Amino acid sequence: MANILVNVPKTAKRGDVIEIKALIMHPMETGFRPGPNGRIIPRNIIERFTATWNDTEIFTLEMSPAISANPFVSFFAVATESGKIRLRWTGDQGFAVEEQAAIAVE
Amino acid sequence: MTGLRLGIVLAAVFVASFALAQGGGEKRRSGYQDMGAALQQMQDDDTANPGMLFVQQGAKLWEQRVGAAGKACADCHDAAGASMKGVAARYPAIPHGADKPVDLEGRINLCRVDSQKAAPLPPESQDMLALLAFVSRQSRGLPIAPPDDPRLAAWREQGAEIYARRQGQLNLSCAICHDDNAGKKLAGVTIPQAHPTGYPIYRLEWQGLGSLRRRLRNCLIGIRAEPYPAGAPEYVSLELYLMERAKGMTMEAPGVRP
Question: Which of A42, B52, B139, B250 has the fewest CB atoms below 10 angstroms from its CB?
Answer without folding.
Answer: A42
